[in-house]
Amino acid sequence: MLYLLLLLAIINIVILGLVWQKIQKLSRATPVTSSPTSTPARPSMPLILIDTSVIIDGRIADIAAAGFVPGRITVPKFVLSELQNIADSEDDLRRARGRRGLETLQRLRELPGGLKVTDEEVSGVKEVDAKLIKLGQRLHCALLTTDFNLGQVASVQGIRILNVNELAGAIRPVVVPGEPLTVTVVQAGKGKGQGVGYLDDGTMIVVENGANLIGKTINTEVTRAFQSAAGKMIFVTPIK
User: Fold this and answer.
1) What share of the chain has pLDDT > 90, as a percent?
2) Residue from 115, 117, 109, 108 nearest 79 by CA
3) pLDDT digits over 199-219, tens only?
């Protein structure tokens, strides 16, 4: 009886050893891999439509190069066609404006974010501005422009408007009444006796009693300033 118990114990030990060896072989054959860490996908940039006015204006290239455009600049082919027609115009001024616009597009294409050209069409609509509004609604994207009237109409229809003139006005230095300002009078103003000059950023300066000072650089004092979506206008008087 004792021998039988001893034999059973030996058999159990052998079986356990074989099982343990099998487990060891399986563990060596199956490499331990850590769970892959998922890399979060980069969010796609929202599209921002541009119209002919902002292309011809040209400042959008500098703004985009500085990184202040919150999305992928997108130009529809029907806007390119309109710009091409302007560049091919027989009128010298329109032709120059159109070619400046084409140069702006080239600058945008060379930026890191590039320029997206979309084939999206708007059927049943002929006017380019109306097409832009419809396309903006379809794509749920903003519209970048310098056209005040287009911006107003598009905004009423739920399109987010990015107006370059408003941006330019927001970053212009603030002037207060009584502040001195040096101005070169370049032309006569609309009001009686007024002259007109401009700051480096394009801000119009209306010089009271400055009609007879055209061509001269004078010291002036700010009397008041007006800001609107169309731009800023500063009124000054010459310092005698």
Assistant:
1) 65
2) 117
3) 877 788 999 999 999 999 999
218, 195 in Cβ contact below 8 A? no
Q: Range of 195's domain?
A: 180-238
Q: How far apart are CA 180 and CA 221, in angstroms?
A: 5
Identify whether 11 is part of a domain.
no
Q: Output the CA–CA distances (angstroms, integers) from residue 106 to 54, 60, 72, 101, in the order listed.
A: 14, 12, 15, 9
What CATH number corresponds to the domain at position 74?
A: 3.40.50.1010
- Domain count for the chain: 2
For residues 73 and 113, is the Cβ–Cβ distance under 8 A? Answer: yes
DSSP 68-81: ---SEEEEEHHHHH
List, edge to edge, every strand of the sheet that includes 72-76.
116-118, 72-76, 47-50, 142-145, 161-163
pTM over 0.85: no
| Structure confidence at residue 2 as a pLDDT band (50, 70, 90) | very low
